[in-house]
């Protein structure tokens, strides 16, 4: 049977001084906790405290010096822009039509241009054969009144291809190959192309027009 160790008995004479109950003690006033020390005033000729030391003592850190600005580049002269080839050479559009139907095809082309937002003063219509009925009507009042309408430039102007040398250029030229003497198309088509600013619409026989464009223009 195992033996149980006996607990040592502490006699009263061997005990230490008795502890006075906490209620009978007089509570001592706690000492005030010292606050942060004020920053020392730097002596003349000596640098002040570092920002880390100032933050520990309650002082505000010094602001960092501003970063140096990068030098701004002065813009030089702009490089010259090369002229656009498409702006110098007008686009050519061919509308197949017979000599009898070329004038009607030209009228449909003008109506389509106006419906898509073209200004009337941007359009010049040239005829290789008989003049347009509008041109014949206006010429009945005299050539001075007729060309005054051309100079005003606020409406579609119709002219004979033989008179195209006198007509000023416009953004769009519609050339109706509606007959005329032999060789009239070959002689008038280069002039119509020279008067067109951005677009030349040719209404006529495609084979005849292509042969002129392939050799004469």
Describe this structure in words.
This protein has 217 residues and is of the alpha/beta class. Helices cover 29% and strands 14% of the residues. The chain has helices at residues 51-56, 85-88, 102-115, 133-139, 143-152, 184-195, 206-215, and strands at 91-96, 123-127, 157-160, 170-176, 196-204. Strands 1-5-4-2-3 form a five-stranded parallel beta sheet.
Question: Mind sketching the topology for me?
Answer:
Layout: H1 51-56, H2 85-88, E1 91-96, H3 102-115, E2 123-127, H4 133-139, H5 143-152, E3 157-160, E4 170-176, H6 184-195, E5 196-204, H7 206-215
Parallel strand pairs: 1-5, 2-3, 2-4, 4-5
Helix pairs in contact: 6-7
SSE order, as H and E?
Answer: HHEHEHHEEHEH
Largest sheet: 5 strands, parallel
Fraction of residues in helix: 25-40%
Rounded to the nearest angstrom, the distance between the terminal CA atoms is: 135 Å
State the strand order across the main sheet. Answer: 1-5-4-2-3
């Amino acid at each position: 049977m195992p033996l149980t160790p006996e607990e040592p008995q502490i006699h009263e004479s061997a005990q230490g001084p008795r502890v006075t109950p906490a209620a009978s003690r007089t509570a001592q006033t706690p000492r005030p906790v010292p606050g942060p020390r004020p920053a020392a005033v730097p002596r003349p000729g000596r640098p002040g405290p570092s920002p880390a030391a100032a933050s520990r003592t309650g002082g505000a850190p010094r602001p960092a010096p501003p970063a140096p600005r990068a030098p701004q580049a002065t813009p030089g002269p702009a490089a010259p822009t090369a002229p656009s080839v498409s702006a110098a050479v007008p686009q050519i559009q061919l509308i197949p039509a017979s000599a009898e139907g070329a004038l009607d095809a030209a009228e449909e082309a003008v109506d389509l241009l106006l419906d898509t937002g073209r200004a009337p003063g941007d359009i010049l219509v040239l005829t290789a054969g008989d003049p347009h009925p509008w041109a014949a009507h206006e010429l009945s009042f005299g050539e001075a009144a007729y060309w005054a309408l051309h100079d005003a430039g606020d409406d579609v102007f119709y002219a004979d291809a033989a008179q195209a040398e006198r007509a000023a250029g416009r953004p769009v030229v519609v050339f109706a190959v509606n007959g005329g003497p032999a060789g009239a198309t070959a002689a008038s088509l280069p002039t119509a192309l020279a008067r067109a600013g951005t677009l030349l619409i040719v209404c006529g026989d495609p084979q005849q027009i292509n042969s002129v464009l392939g050799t004469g223009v």
